[in-house]
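Hi support team,

I'm opening this ticket because the web form for multi-chain structure prediction keeps timing out on my end. I have pasted the exact lines I submitted so you can reproduce it. The total is 474 residues across two entries, so I didn't expect it to be a heavy job. Is there a limit I'm missing, or should I split the entries? Thanks in advance, R.K.
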Amino acid sequence: MKELNAKQIKSFTLLLLSLQKKNTFLGFAIGLIPILVTAFSIELFIGKIIGGEVHTNGMKGVNAIFFIFLSNAISQSTEALKKYSSIIKNSYLQPITILVSEAVLQYLSFFVSFIILAIAFQIPFEKSALLLLLSCFVAAYTLAVANYLLVLSSILEDFGRILGIVFQMLFWVSPILYSIRVINPDLAYFFMANPFYIFFELIYLIFSPQAYAPQYFWLGLGSCFSFLFLLSILLTNLRKKVLVFL
Amino acid sequence: MSKPLVHLSNIAVTLYNNSSDNFSFKKLLLTQKFLPEQISILNDISLDIYEGEIIGIEGSNGVGKTTLLSVIAGILPIFSGVREVHGKCLPLLGLGHVFHGDLDIEKNIELWDASFNSNFPLEIGFVNDVIAQAGLKIKKDTLLRALSSGMKSRLAFELAMRDTADILLLDEVFSVGDADFRSQSSQKIKNKLKTLGCAVIVSHDRKILEDNCSKIIRIKDQNTIEIC
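Hello R.K., no limit was hit. The queue was backed up. Here is the completed structure from your submission:
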């Protein structure tokens, strides 16, 4: 991709760190508080009330930080394009630079939150390693989705609000607080239309590999790639013209 | 004749009118119209700029002067036609547009460096030298929002003069700042123009164009460029 400029991405990520006041230990730690409060309350209280007791320590908390990461990375990076549109229109700062920089900062917050969760809930090393490997795939998928959606963000002025509503709904139809296996199987297939479902299925399988069910895995994977394919068909041409809409 | 540094052939630029009536999802549902209305800014425009030439562009407001600079710089995609540019461009489409008010001076210089791929030697000495040469009596950790627009212009101008571009594109750069800044910048820019491959200057001030340019063109409308 000719738009990708590693030096520009590095410089802009560091500048973004300053702009978001996360360039100090305290600033970064303050940014983690909402993520950790959500993850711990889901793991220790809300998840138990809604989804019942699950004998996989830390799984619901991990689900929560994965969801926070992917929703924040997509919504913040597409919104950031509007925030810095004046600079993009007047220089060679590429939209993809802003997208990647914002996603890198979100990943950094995710990574530190994950380490804290892994220590707090004593997630075994091999499971933690697999979860981090999965997080790299989630990051790549998130970037691909955001790369297509950023053009919608520059055309539709209320796209940020729409995205917020969509992610709020996706939170409840993703198996974060509950397991898809406790739902009526006929209804469960509707939940698998969620393109992010596969990530939570994989988290579930990392914690409970014996629960592997091929239909859940393949349908989830199908939804995930179909969604990306659909975005690429619908938005590739518009994406090339994103600067015209700013 | 040698190859032009900038070659534009029959280019057309179309933008989307989203300024007067913003597009929203609600509007999309009500009107079933996904994209805003298209406006043709430039159509069938050709221009060659050779090494050593300094082209002045004049024309009334909204006729497409800045758009033409953006096209030469490669910032704005063209709808049709051919654009060939040999060399690195530095588009100054307004002094201070690439700064961010919440960053300090040092970080804003880094932002400029990243935005224009300038490869400045970003050590403390360089930053202090830029501030001093720009005639600013401020510290490098002063937030940009504390600066007046004239001070921002001075800083941007100093950075522009240090950039090593082959093709300089200036949009109304001469009309900012106080009288002192204008006379200093005019001299600096004249010296800079001698070291460049070519330059394009947009201004409403005919005298500035006559003083600095080897050729003046006028954009009459979206289809017509005439040599004055």
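A quick check on our side: The mean pLDDT of chain A is 91. Let us know if the file doesn't open in your viewer.
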